[in-house]
Write a structure and sequence with these properties.
Number of strands: 13
Helix content: under 10%
Number of domains: 1
Strand content: 35-45%
Structural class: mainly beta
Number of helices: 3
Distance between the termini: 5 Å
Radius of gyration: 17 Å
Order of helices and strands: EEHEEEEEEEHEHEEE
Largest sheet: 8 strands, antiparallel
């Protein structure tokens, strides 16, 4: 059994902010936002501030092309480090939802990536109230998550809050959480740990 640990790409990870709107459907269904891949923190938001709705989605691509072609992936965990600088707000009792990102490039994040994601959940939701502050929060990937790991390129994740994902308009201000990005440095980078096996010659299992 072998393990591969990879970290998110500094050019491709970060946040894409929707343009604040008094219309929930306008901001949630928008096709473009404002991308920011250079900050050391990414702000995950789904809230109502006064009369305006606010949504921010996070994107974390990982170069997993070093996985052997014949690898059988048995487990994987996505870990995101919560920033103590900006503590968690959870007035709406929301949860964190992990889905697959379909952003255009693993090494870049652009405005049009705002709606570039699939809708299958890849891990158990984590309630904002249960987030560990100033530490890694782990998301063990389910079968769908393991199946989408890319052995020849980038494995890409999008992180959303549950009211955004469930299409349930928030009523209070600032349900939000900040996670460190790859720009923060080696101690805090988003990471993906993949466990796999390799089939051996003659029916024997080969372990690394």
């Amino acid at each position: 059994m072998a393990t591969l640990t990879v970290y998110s790409n500094t050019g491709g990870d970060g946040e894409v902010d929707g343009t604040a709107s008094t219309s929930w459907s306008t901001i949630r269904d928008a096709t473009t936002g404002t991308a920011n891949s250079s900050n050391t923190e990414a702000n995950l938001t789904c809230s109502k501030d006064g009369s305006n709705y606010n949504i921010t989605r996070l994107f974390f691509p990982f170069d997993t092309s070093s996985l052997p072609a014949g690898a059988t992936i048995t487990a994987a965990t996505l870990s995101l480090y919560e920033s103590i600088v900006n503590t968690v707000s959870h007035a709406e009792n929301q949860s964190i939802v992990i889905v697959e990102s379909t952003q255009a490039a693993g090494d870049a994040l652009v405005n049009n990536d705002y709606d570039n994601f699939n809708t299958t959940e890849l891990a158990t939701r984590l309630a904002l109230a249960d987030v560990i502050v100033d530490d890694y929060n782990d998301f063990a990937l389910n079968a769908a998550g393991l199946a989408m790991i890319n052995k020849t390129g980038y494995t890409k994740f999008c992180v959303r809050l549950s009211k955004d994902f469930d299409n349930s308009a928030p009523t209070t201000s600032w349900d939000t959480i900040y996670f460190h990005t790859a720009d923060k440095g080696t101690t805090y980078r988003p990471r993906l740990v993949i466990t796999y096996t390799l089939a051996g010659v003659g029916g024997y299992a080969f372990f690394m």
